[in-house]
Automatic annotation (TrEMBL):
Pfam families from the UniProt entry: Sua5_C (PF03481), Sua5_yciO_yrdC (PF01300)
Naturally occurring in which organism (per UniProt): Chelativorans intermedius
Family in the record: Belongs to the SUA5 family.
UniProt entry keywords in alphabetical sequence: ATP-binding, Cytoplasm, Nucleotide-binding, Nucleotidyltransferase, Transferase, tRNA processing
Name of the protein described by the UniProt record: Threonylcarbamoyl-AMP synthase
PROSITE patterns according to UniProt: YRDC
YrdC-like domain segment(s): 8-194
Length: 323
C-alpha cells in the first residue's frame, strides 16, 4: 500500500518521487490530485496507468506562479485579469500554448491549447520546489468519485502509487472551474469550485456555455460515479433507497431511506460543495442499489454541484477525470 505522510513532513519525499518520474497523490484546495511532472512523458503516462484514464482526455498543468505560467501559455489581457483575481485558487484557464512549451503532448491530448491552474497549499509548494509544472487530475480511479481525503485516495489508488500526502479534508470539495479564454471570449468548459458569477463580475462579461467536444478535463458525459445508481431531483424516496439530502426540508418517504446524509442542513451551497464527494462515497458503501438525490439550487456553486450529479447519474459507457 502507498505510504501516507502528513503534509508538514512530506515535501522532501514528495519532490524526490516527482523528480524520479513517479506519481504522488497530494492535497489541493479543491480535491486530492494525482501529480506527476507535466514535462515528462513517462511520468504523465504513470498518471493514466494508475487511474485507468482515457488518453484522449487532457490534464491540467499546475504552476507555482504567473512567471512559470507564461513559459507554457499565451495570456491575453482578459486571462491576465482573471489570473490576477483568482490565482492561487480553484480556476483553470485554457489558453493557447506558448511557442516552445515543454508541457508533454500526452498531458494536453495533442491539443494546441493547455489548461493551467495555480493551486493553493502543499501542491504549490511542491511545484515551486520541483521547478516544473505538475499534471494533476483527481486522485481516484477514472470515472469514480473524486477523493477529498487521503483515506479516500488510499481506498482507490493505494496499491498503484508510492506516496499519499495527507493534508486533511479539502476545503472546496469540488474540482476547479475551467474557462477557455480566446481573445475577449470566455467559455465555461466545466463549472467548479469558483462560481461562474464571480468570474463574470471580474471579467465584465458573460461566460459562453454549450461547448462541444473534449477541450479540458471533466467534460466527458459520465464520471464522478458511485457504484449505486443515482436518481436526481427526487420528490419521493422509494423504499430501500439511500438519500442524499439538501436543506432543512425532506422529500416524501425520507423516513424509509436506508441511510440519509445531508449536504447542508442549512442549505448552504459552499458547505454542500465541500461535502458532495464524501457523502456520495459514504452512501455508496451501504447496501442501497439506488441513491435518491434531493434538488439542489442551480445558482452559484449549485451549478457545479448539479453538473457533477448529472455526470454521476449518466450512463457509464466511458470514464474521465478532473481536478
Amino acid at each position: 500500500m502507498a505510504r501516507i505522510l502528513q503534509q508538514d513532513d512530506a515535501l522532501e519525499a514528495a519532490c524526490r518521487h516527482l523528480a524520479a518520474g513517479e506519481a504522488v497523490a497530494m492535497p489541493t484546495e479543491t480535491v486530492y490530485g494525482l501529480a506527476a511532472d507535466a514535462t515528462n512523458g513517462e511520468a504523465v503516462a504513470r498518471i493514466f496507468e494508475a487511474k485507468g484514464r482515457p488518453r484522449f482526455n487532457p490534464l491540467i498543468a499546475h504552476v507555482a506562479d504567473m512567471e512559470m505560467a507564461r513559459r507554457f501559455a499565451v495570456f491575453p489581457p482578459l486571462a491576465e485579469r482573471l489570473a490576477g483575481a483568482f490565482w492561487p485558487g480553484p480556476l483553470t484557464l485554457v489558453l493557447p500554448q506558448a511557442e516552445g512549451s515543454a508541457i508533454h503532448p500526452l498531458a494536453t491530448a495533442g491539443l494546441d491549447t493547455v489548461a493551467l491552474r495555480c493551486p493553493r497549499g502543499f501542491a504549490r509548494q511542491a511545484i515551486a520546489r520541483l521547478g516544473r509544472p505538475l499534471a494533476a487530475p483527481s486522485a481516484n480511479v477514472s470515472g469514480r468519485i473524486s477523493a477529498t481525503t487521503a483515506e479516500a485516495v488510499q481506498a482507490q489508488l493505494g496499491t498503484r502509487i508510492p506516496l499519499i500526502v495527507d493534508g486533511g479534508p479539502t476545503p472546496v470539495g469540488l474540482e476547479s472551474t475551467i474557462v477557455k479564454v480566446a481573445g475577449e471570449t470566455l467559455t465555461l468548459l466545466r463549472p467548479g469550485g469558483l462560481a461562474a458569477e464571480e468570474i463574470e463580475r471580474v471579467a465584465g462579461r458573460a461566460l459562453v456555455r454549450g461547448t462541444t467536444g473534449v477541450e479540458a478535463p471533466g467534460m466527458l458525459a459520465s464520471h464522478y460515479a458511485p457504484s449505486a445508481r443515482l436518481r436526481l431531483n427526487v420528490a419521493q424516496v422509494e423504499p430501500g433507497e439511500a438519500l442524499l439530502a439538501f436543506g432543512p426540508r425532506r422529500a416524501r418517504g425520507a423516513e424509509t431511506a436506508v441511510k440519509v446524509l445531508n449536504l447542508s442542513p442549512a442549505g448552504d451551497l459552499r458547505e454542500a460543495a465541500a461535502n458532495l464527494f464524501g457523502h456520495l462515497a459514504a452512501l455508496d458503501l451501504g447496501a442501497a442499489a439506488v441513491i435518491a438525490v434531493e434538488p439542489v439550487p442551480a445558482s452559484g456553486l449549485g451549478e457545479a454541484i448539479n453538473d457533477r450529479l448529472a455526470r454521476a447519474a449518466a450512463p457509464r459507457d466511458t470514464g474521465g477525470e478532473k481536478l
